[in-house]
Amino acid sequence: MRLIGENLTCERGGREVFRGLSFSLKNGEALLVTGRNGAGKSSLLRMIAGLVRIASGTLAIEGSETEAPIGEQAHYLGHLDALKPALTVAENLQFWAEFLGPASGDVGPALQAVDLAPLADLPAAYLSAGQRRRLSIARLVAVPRAIWLLDEPTSALDAASQARLADLMRRHLTSGGMIVAAAHGAIGLERARELKMGPQ
Amino acid sequence: MTGFVALMLRDMRLAVRVGGGALMGALFFLIVVVMVPFAVGPDLNLLARIGPAILWLGALLASLLALDRLFATDYEDGSLDLLMMAPMPLELAVAAKAIAHWLTTGLPLVLIAPLLGLMLNVELNATGALMLTLAAGTPALTFIGLIGAALSVALRRGGLLLAVLVLPLTIPVLIFGVAAAQAAIVGPAPFGPPFTILCALSLASFVLGPYAAAAALRHGLE
Fold first, then answer.
1. Residues B81-117, buried b or exposed e (16+ Cβ, 10 A)?
2. Given a cut of 70, is residue A125 above it in pLDDT?
3. Which of A91, A168, B141, B174 has the highest Cβ tally under 10 A?
4. Phi-psi category of A183—alpha, beta or left, where left has phi over 0 and alpha has psi -120 to 50?
């Protein structure tokens, strides 16, 4: 399976964010998108997720088993955590697991993976920023999808959680997944290729 | 289908928990209707005559109350992005949210209407028909309001825009809802024709509303 972007141009609010961007990514590879603020890192991720219109260029996935659009084969971990404060930790995750994927009955292992199992019955309103982040990362574990689009995934995470995330990402890559991550520093992907955005 | 049910149950759960909008609509409805006799005076004949209209106006305003948050909360916390990345079409997701909204805000209005009918001197044997008109007509309010809720998120404008956009579109529902209720309570016009049109309005908005709302959301989230 390959994810290929050719000559992508992004326009937002009538302003050109980037132009002529090309990349390709195959199974087990990670792409680290870097660049200064406003270079279009987040826009690129949202574009791959299908949340921002492609002004010109093509974005395609080759060798996929399904005909589904890229957005439906990808997880998007943005700046917002998509959690409801009134629902408990387990309810939040259970909902996304049922809604995004083929229903998987038990979200316990996913909560275990981000070390939130002891807080399963706590309303999400009482979580700290880092815990909220971990809960949204649990979504990636609960529903298997080939492409992970991570927008500064390590923000608000402590050292132990960052190590756990790096471990999850490595496991995802070894099992044949792809990762496109936007970040300012190292996020624990040693063998990731780098895509520099904005004026060099 | 599990996604559809999961989204519906989540929205219903959110509506009945702390900070949800389920009770607000019913309470607002209660307050509006209770205040009318104080405003127009204890003239029982007058109250009986304007009763159906008051009940329908109250239901209309109450169902608008929680609508502007329908997509706004999902937009603000990032859930809307994920709703668009689901294997389920956005139209279905939007419909699931609308059904949940009606079950938590529309249905309570229908259920407390007989009690409020008493305050407006609506005859007991007519309350059944009145409930029937509300049950048939309030889904139309929700599904028309759905379009306004999606547009207000897409245009990044809150509350008042929704009322301005939606209220004119609900005039037909109001006309035929009140006409059917009047026919049931005081006659002499038959109950059938306005009630059938009311059902048609609900069914049409049930089909068109989710498509229009999903189009608005897709267009707005660039």
1. bbbbbbebebbbbbbbbbbbbbbbbbebbbebbbebb
2. yes
3. B141
4. beta
Q: Do B82 and A100 touch (CB under 8 A)?
A: yes
| Mutation choice for B interface testing from A99, A149, A152 by most B CBs within 10 A | A99
Chain B residue whose CA is closest to A125: B18
DSSP annotation of A71? G
Q: Is the confidence at residue B94, as pLDDT, over 80?
A: yes
Three-state DSSP class for residue A181: strand
Q: What is the CATH number of domain A2-196?
A: 3.40.50.300
pTM: 0.88
| Confidence band of A144 (pLDDT split at 50, 70, 90) | confident
DSSP at A120: T
> What does the domain layout of chain B look like in residue ranges?
2-220
Q: What is the per-residue pLDDT for A73? A: 83
Domain range annotation of chain A: 2-196
Q: Among all residues of chain A, which has the CA nearest to that of B219?
A: A53
Residue with tokens 């709302």: B213
